Amino acid sequence: MPKDAGPQAKTNPGRFFEDYTVGDVIEHAVPRTVSGGERALYHALYPARHALYSSDEFARACGLPESPLDDLAAFHIVFGKSVPDVSLNAVANLGYAEARWLRPVYVGDTIRSSSEVIGLKQNSSGKTGVVYVRTTGRNQHGLAVMEFARWVMVKKRDLDAPAPETVVPDLAPAVAPEKLVLPGGIDFSAYDFVQAGEPHRLSDYQVGEVIDHVDGVTIEEAEHMMATRLWQNTSKTHFDATPRADRKRLIYGGHVMSMARALSFNGLANAQCLVAINGGSHTNPCFAGDTVRAWSEVLDIAETPAPGVGAIRLRLVAVKEGGMAGQLKGEDGKYLPHVLLDLDYWALMPA
Amino acid sequence: MPKDAGPQAKTNPGRFFEDYTVGDVIEHAVPRTVSGGERALYHALYPARHALYSSDEFARACGLPESPLDDLAAFHIVFGKSVPDVSLNAVANLGYAEARWLRPVYVGDTIRSSSEVIGLKQNSSGKTGVVYVRTTGRNQHGLAVMEFARWVMVKKRDLDAPAPETVVPDLAPAVAPEKLVLPGGIDFSAYDFVQAGEPHRLSDYQVGEVIDHVDGVTIEEAEHMMATRLWQNTSKTHFDATPRADRKRLIYGGHVMSMARALSFNGLANAQCLVAINGGSHTNPCFAGDTVRAWSEVLDIAETPAPGVGAIRLRLVAVKEGGMAGQLKGEDGKYLPHVLLDLDYWALMPA
Amino acid sequence: MPKDAGPQAKTNPGRFFEDYTVGDVIEHAVPRTVSGGERALYHALYPARHALYSSDEFARACGLPESPLDDLAAFHIVFGKSVPDVSLNAVANLGYAEARWLRPVYVGDTIRSSSEVIGLKQNSSGKTGVVYVRTTGRNQHGLAVMEFARWVMVKKRDLDAPAPETVVPDLAPAVAPEKLVLPGGIDFSAYDFVQAGEPHRLSDYQVGEVIDHVDGVTIEEAEHMMATRLWQNTSKTHFDATPRADRKRLIYGGHVMSMARALSFNGLANAQCLVAINGGSHTNPCFAGDTVRAWSEVLDIAETPAPGVGAIRLRLVAVKEGGMAGQLKGEDGKYLPHVLLDLDYWALMPA
C-alpha cells in the first residue's frame, strides 16, 4: 500500500449496505477466552443474583458441571464480535428473532462468532437498506453456543449503487417450546428454593401476570463503558462524547438488557437459564443518569423433557424514571417515552 | 397465586420487626463461588497492598496454601447475603460485635450465609425495634469462615402488632485474644519485611500510638456501586438516586471500611490478617465526591500460639475532608461530623 | 519507637534526591499474583482487542502455551511497584529508555520488582535532581519478565545536602533490533489474519506511513482510578482531588498509554506483542472528560529469527480533542498542547 494512501487507509471503515450479499458468511475477528474475571465483572456491573450463575455448588445440584457464564454475557460476547462487520455503519438496530442458547459457556472456553447474511432490502429513500443476519457463536470445540437473527438499517456508501434483489427472511414470531435447547444434564428435581431466594415455581405463575421488580439502579458512564468494552463492542457511540453537543454517550442496549434481567431477580429468582429470545426492541435511548427499573409479564408457559424443568415465556420491560409496571404503549400504539427495552424471551424454571 | 394479587405479589418486601422471633435461623439466599476475578476487582476498587493478600508466594512463605481472598471481601460477601433478610427495612445499622474470621476464603470456595435472631427490643415509639442477629458464613464444606453479631433498627409493618418479649444478648465489648482463631498453619517466623513493604513489627508499636495513614481517595459513584453489587448487597439506598432530592446515593458502610483498611497499609503494612472485629460504627454518611482518609490508634497487643505471630488491636477511623488524625469526638462526646467510621479490630502481625 | 514520634512516624515518606546512591538496588514491596481477573479488567478498562491477548486458542496457534497478560499490564505492574521508592516525591517523570519485555506473564505468575540506581544529577537550582533507575520485574522463578530505564526529577529534602557526583547513564536512543527478546516459541507462520481482524502484514507497512486510529474514548474518573489501583500505583495525584482548586485528578500516564495502544488495534491489529519501548514522553496532562484518540507513525521495520515474525517500530501518539493524525509539534519544536503521549516502541507482526 503506497504511503500516500492516507492515514485511514488501514483502518476498518465498516461495511455499507452494498457490501452485503445474501448467503455470504462473515467470520468475525478476535476470539475471546473467558475466565472467572468476566464472571466477577458481570456481578460487579449488574445486580445479578440468579443462583445457578453465582454458585458452582448450586449449578452442580442442577446437573451442570459448574456455574456457567451468565447467558446474557455469552450473548454480549457473540454479539460484540459482529459489531465491526455488521453494525458499524448502522443507523438503527431494528430487531432480534430466533435467538437460542445452545450450550452453556464455562470458564476457560474460547468464543468466536460468524454471521450469515440472510436478507437484504433497500429502503425506498435509496440511502439505506435493511441487512438481516444470522449470527452464531462457537466455542473452542467448534460447537455452537448460541445463535440469533438480527436486522439493522445500514447506510449506503454509494447512493447510485443498484438495489439488490429484496430477500426478507421468514423469521418465527417466537421460538416454539419444542425448539428450545436445554443445557445438557439440567435437572431441577432437587432444586433448592431457599438458596435460590424465592419459593415460586412455574405453577405459581399465570399467563398475563405482571411482576414489578421494584428496585432501581442509576446508571453511570464508567459502568456502561466498562461493560460494553468487556464484550469488545466497538460501536463509537458508546464511548466518544464528542459527536453530540450534550456530550452524552448512547448506552449499549445490551447494558440495559443485562440490568433489567438482573433486576428481575426480585420476583423471578427462579427463572434461571435463558434459552431463547423471541424478539426485542430498544425502544428509547438510555443515558447516564437515568434510573433503570424493570417489570415483567408472563406470556406463556411450557413443559420441557428435563426432570423438574419448565419453561416460562416472559416480556421483560426496562423503564427509566416515569415508567410504571404494566404500562408499555400509549393510545397511539407507540412505546411510551420512558420505555427503554421490550424483550420477549424464554427461561427455564422449576416446574 | 391469583393474577389479581398485584404486580408486587412475588417480590421480596423484606422482613419487618414483627417478623422476627428469637431463636429463628434464617438461611440467606444466593450462594457465591469466588474466583481470581473477585480478588482482582478488590485490588481495582481499593488501594489494597497487604502482601499476604496480593501474592501466592508471600502467602506460602507464611504457611498458607495460597493467597486468600481479602478478609473484608469475605465479610462483605457474608454480610451482603444477609441484607435481603435482615436490613432491607432497616432504618439504621446500629453496631457490630463478636466478629471473628474462622477460616480463610480461597479462590474456588462457595460461600453461603445464615443468621440466627439472638435478640429483639421494641423501641418506645412503638414504630420500630432493634433486631440482633448472629450471622455465619460457611464454605462448600459446611465449615464456618466467619461469624459476627450485628444489630439494626427495623420498622414495624403493623404498628398495632404486640411488642415481643425484650431479649438483649450479652455481647462481649471485645473479642478476648484467646478467642481469636488463626488461619491454620500461619507462621511469621520467616516473614519477609522487605516484600511486605515496612520494617515495623509488633514490638515497634505501643498502645496509644496514633498513625496517620496520610493518603486520600476521592470516591466515585461507579466504584462504590460496583463494589456493593459485587457483594450482592441489595440495599436500594446505594444504587437508586431517585428517592433523594439531591440525587445522592448513600455509600455502603463496608465500602468505607475497605477503603480505610486499604489506606492503612501506609503505616500498618504488616497488620496482615484480620481476625476479629470488636465493634464498629458508621458514624456519618459518606457520599460520592468525599475524599476518604484514615488514621489508626493502637488499642492493645497480644500474643498468639502461632510461630512469630502476634495480634494487634486497632481502632481504624475513616474521615472525610476536615478530619485530622487522632480527632474522634467533640467535647459533647459525639463523633465529629467528618468521622465516617470507627472500627475496632484485631489483626495479625509479626511479633 | 516512642509514642511521641508523631502520627506519621511509621508511614512511608518516600525517598528524596539525597537518599539515592548510584549502584544501590532497591527491592520494591508487595509482590503480586495475577489471575484471569486482571486480564478481564484490562479488557473492561481498555478497548483491547489484539487476538493473541484475547484468546488462548489464538495464542497457541502462535506457539505460546496460552494467552499472556497484556504486555502493558505487565509493564504497569512492574512500574507500579517502583512508585513508592522512586517517584513518590517526583516532580516529573522525565523519560523511558531501553525497555524490553523479556518473558510473557501468564495467569498464576507472581511478579516482583527491583530498581538499580544508575545515574544522579543535581539540578542547577539546588532544589531537585534527576534520578536514573533501571527497573526489573521478575516472576516467581526469579526470571526477568521485563526491564526498563526511567528517569525522574525528585525533590531534595534538605536543600543544604551536598550534590552527589554527577553520573548520567549512557542510554541507547533506541533498542537495536538484534537486542529484542522474543517470547519463546513464537511462530507466525500459521497466523490467522481473519481471526486477528486485519489483513495487513509487515510488508504492507512503509516507514513514514501515518495511521489514524479514528476511534475516541472519553475518560472517566472511576476508570482511571480503578486501572491505576489495579497496578498498585500509589501516587497520590491520581486519587486525591483535594490538592487542586479545580478538584481534578492527574491521570496516570500509563492509563493513556494503554488506552492509545488499545485504540491502535484499528489499523495495527497485527502488531501483537510489544517487545521494547525505545523512549516515551507524557507530553501534556490528561484529565477526566478528555476524549483520547491515537495515531501511529511507522518508524522502522526489522527481521527477527522467529518463523514468520517481523518487528515494526512505531511512534504511538495519544491526543485529546483538537489533535490530528500526523501533527506532533509546533513550529517552535514543542509538543502541541493536545498531544498527551509520544511513545516509541517495537512490536511483533507477521512478516
Overview of the molecule:
Three copies of one chain form a homotrimer. Chain A is an alpha+beta fold and 351 residues long. Chain A is built from seven helices and twelve strands. The first copy, chain A, has helices at residues 36-45, 56-61, 71-87, 193-196, 221-230, 253-263, 265-268, and strands at residues 25-27, 32-33, 90-101, 110-122, 128-138, 144-155, 210-212, 217-218, 273-282, 291-303, 309-319, 339-350. In chain A, strands 1, 2, 3, 4, 5, 6, 7, 8, 9, 10, 11 and 12 form a twelve-stranded antiparallel beta sheet that branches. In chain A, α1 packs antiparallel against α5. The longest helix of chain A has 17 residues, at 71-87. Chain A starts with 24 loop residues before the first strand and ends with a strand. Chains in contact: A-B, A-C, B-C. At the B-C interface, α1, α2, α4, β7 and β8 of B face β2, α1 and α5 of C.
